[in-house]
Amino acid sequence: MSTNEKKTLTVALTGASGAVYGVRIVQELLKSGHTVHFLLTGAAWQVLYYELGMDTSDRERCLDELFGSHERLFYHTDQEFSAPIASGSAQNDGMVIVPCSMGTLAKIAHGTSSNLLERAADVALKERRKLIIVPRETPLNSIHLENMKRLSDTGAQIVPAMPGFYHHPSNYDDLVNFVVGKVLDQLGASHNLFRRWGES
User: Fold this and answer.
1) Binding site annotation covers 22?
2) CA–CA separation, 136 vs 156, rounded Å?
3) How confident is the model at residue 200 (pLDDT cuts 50, 70, 90)?
4) Which domain of life is it from (predicted)?
5) What value does the mean pLDDT take over residues 23-47?
6) Quick one: average pLDDT of 125-139?
């Protein structure tokens, strides 16, 4: 259910293919007035370079190119365990890991917290907050599937990066926006990124 209530959310990108999904989600959340705590793994920075052609040698400039100057965007590094999202006492309305690599998914499923991303996900689970995992891998083996079920059983929402076609996508952006919109729906964040089933 979408709402106009302003939220504080965490968005994390890993090294799986599909960095555009995470970038677009952050852009949409900021555009709607939400506050975003933003994380990228080292591998995610590499994916920004290879998939989006970003010059990641100057990370602050890269973030500015992607999101502009936003007072509601808080970027955190991998080992910044002093960040608010590392503690359950800090208020947070949910976390999205998009795209989520199978390595990151496995560590979260088994309670490993070797970096801030994994710790923030652990916090979301222990505090019973919304945790949305957007896996981007194919094909999936039994270990991947078992880890997804383990996370689903603990309350995480698994939203695979699988675009629909009933809205008649006509370009690349339509396909990206469909997946991004489905994630925003799970966060309760309003958007108009795709035509819903039954809408004229």
Assistant:
1) no
2) 16
3) low
4) Bacteria
5) 96
6) 97
Q: What is the pLDDT of residue 1?
A: 43
| Residue 72, marked binder | no
Residue 175: CA atoms inside 13 Å, Cβ hemisphere, count? Answer: 8
pTM of the model: 0.94
Calpha distance 76→82 (Å, rounded): 10
pLDDT at 20 over 70: yes
> Domains, the chain, ranges and CATH?
8-185 (3.40.50.1950)
Tell me which of 189 and 118 has the higher pLDDT.
118
Is 14 marked as binding a ligand? no
Residue 25, SS3 per DSSP: helix
Own/partner long-range contacts of 157-162 (Cβ < 8 Å, ≥24 apart): 157/130, 157/131, 157/132, 157/133, 157/186, 158/133, 159/132, 159/133, 159/134, 159/183, 159/186, 160/134, 160/135, 160/136, 161/18, 161/21, 161/98, 161/99, 161/134, 161/135, 161/136
Residue 142 assigned ligand-binding role: no
pLDDT beyond 90 at 74: yes
101 is in an annotated binding site: yes
Across the chain, what does the average pLDDT equal? Answer: 94
Check the annotation: does 17 bind a ligand.
Answer: yes
- 102 known ligand binder: yes
Query: Does 8 belong to an annotated binding site?
Result: no
Task: Report d(CA 35, CA 29) in Å as an integer.
Answer: 7
Instruction: Please tell me whether 94 is known to bind a ligand.
Output: no
